Amino acid sequence: MTPAPYPPPPWRLRGAVQAALWRVPRAALPGPLPAGARPLGWGGTALLATVRADWGPDGDLAYGELVVAVPVRLGRRIGVTVTAAWVDSPASLAGGRELWAIPKRLGRFETQAGRTALTDAEGPVAAFQGRSPRSLPVRLPIRLRILQPDRSGVRTTRAAATGGPWPGGPGWDFSADGPLALLSGRRPLLSLTLADAEARFGL
To answer: How far is the C-alpha of 193 from the C-alpha of 133, rounded, in Å?
Structure first.
């Protein structure tokens, strides 16, 4: 099968982003992480981030995604390691894997009455209850370092985003029998929405 074509980096994406930060048992963290990387957290717990994005046609690619990432420290570097990602675009899947070693997989996002459900080939993954988009009259800049394990050791990718921030986000609902069951029934430490977001990935 020929991989779907994808644009060269950096990818410039535009849309809406909703992120949440969770506190979970350290022993339950997904992986793999780069060799030597230490999850950020305290006690027997660690942090886990989820990011849902709807990238529109004004960018290089239009697709929906859900990303799961572990904030880590690797030596003097602080970044995140993406342990899972679902996208509904074969081009995004191919590019994410080949350019940045991100373990993307195909998923399906279906929205009815303001509720979006994500499923993959194995069944339900998560659902999100939409809310009216609002934002503060400022632009919040965000910079990220992505540290992914690969055959050569660690592949480092930089990304940047900006958007109109608003505290809070969607209602997150994770399947108790799905791949993100460790988040089922939990409430995030914090949530943030970026309206009219612009992102560059692969700097």
So the answer is: 8
